[in-house]
Amino acid sequence: MTADRSQLGAFLRSRRDQLTPGQAGMQAFPGPRRVPGLRKEELAVLAGVSPDYYGRLEQGRQANISRSVLEALARALRLTDTERDHLFDLAGPPDRPGRSPASVQQADPGLLRLMGSLDHLPALILGQRSDVLATNRLFTIVVRDLEPFSSFGRFLFLDPLARQRIINWEHFAAASIAALRRESGRRPHDTRLKALIDELRSKDEDAARWWDDHTVQDYASVAKQIRHPLAGELSFDLEMVTPPLDPDQRLIVYTVQPGSETAQKIPFLASWNAQDTVKPLT
After folding, report:
1. Residue spans of alpha helices (H) in the chain
2. Which of 11, 113, 153, 211 could make a disulfide contact with 130, Cβ separation 3.0–4.6 Å?
3. Read out DSSP for 31-87?
4. Computed over its alpha carbons, how large is the radius of gyration of the chain?
5. 275, 133 contact by CB (below 8 A)
6. How far is CA 104 from CA 132, 134, 135, 166, in A?
7. What is the rounded distance in angstroms from the CA atom of residue 135 to the CA atom of residue 265?
8. What domain range includes position 201?
9. Residues 74, 161 within the same domain
């Protein structure tokens, strides 16, 4: 059984456990229930496949899976668009070659120029595996001075300052694990990504728990509340920009509501430190 097929079976079981027959629009099969959600046989009926075939899918013993079967499973399980895409990634050919990432990923020049024009807001550029490719001065002041090519995921889970400074840490950190799982489906042969995930799971109970629930989502714009030692509580909406030629990078800008308390505090924080406006990590 390949690693890809193992993950496919685990993902199917996790989604099946979270969907009851009533939610799936069907009458529950008679007899005692030993699972919280759909039985294998119930899902097989909904997807139009035999119970034996579906059993092989969950056990990782089905080598080839047609697109029509995957579409039927996605509909039966009521998957979101992101979950559906993740299902298709996990069901790809087990021996598919992975992309050979560059030895050192560099920040996109266009994103660097854009970040340079946003010196009035905290911003950073993240690459594959949540690697930090660049930060600006306000990000360093508001959040943290991160080391060159450090992992934002390691900061979130392994640096005590993250839990102290990010008020809604649990929501934000859980979303980051779900995004790492989505990324792992896209790049199953990325050994550095696997090593990062294994490290987070082994060193942090929350990361292990969230990983095991198989929730997936793309990196997305979210809200973030910061507890700053000088400025007090700050509220940001995180917006992302991805260059068309490199979807593995994203500029993340900490935006503020006009006229808000945070907007009034940002000029004070900007004048508090006199470092360079943009700090590319090269």
Report:
1. 3-17, 21-24, 40-47, 51-59, 67-76, 81-90, 109-116, 137-142, 152-158, 160-165, 169-186, 191-203, 205-212, 261-272
2. 153
3. S---SSS--HHHHHHHHTS-HHHHHHHHHT------HHHHHHHHHHTT--HHHHHHH
4. 22
5. no
6. 12, 13, 17, 29
7. 20
8. 109-280
9. no
For residues 23 and 74, give the distance between their C-alpha atoms in angstroms, rounded to a whole number.
14
| Distant-in-sequence, close-in-space partners of 117: CB < 8 Å, separation ≥ 6 | none
pLDDT tens-digit readout, 180-215: 999 999 888 899 999 999 999 999 999 999 999 999
Please check whether residue 103 lies inside any domain of the structure. no
Q: Strand 223-228's sheet: what is its strand order?
A: 223-228, 232-241, 250-255, 123-126, 132-136, 278-280
CATH number at residue 83: 1.10.260.40
Structure tokens at 105: 């990923």
Q: How far apart are CA 143 and CA 80, in angstroms?
A: 32
pLDDT tens digits, 251-274: 999 999 999 999 999 999 988 754
Q: Which two tokens stand for residue 36?
A: 């919280």
233: helix, strand or coil: strand
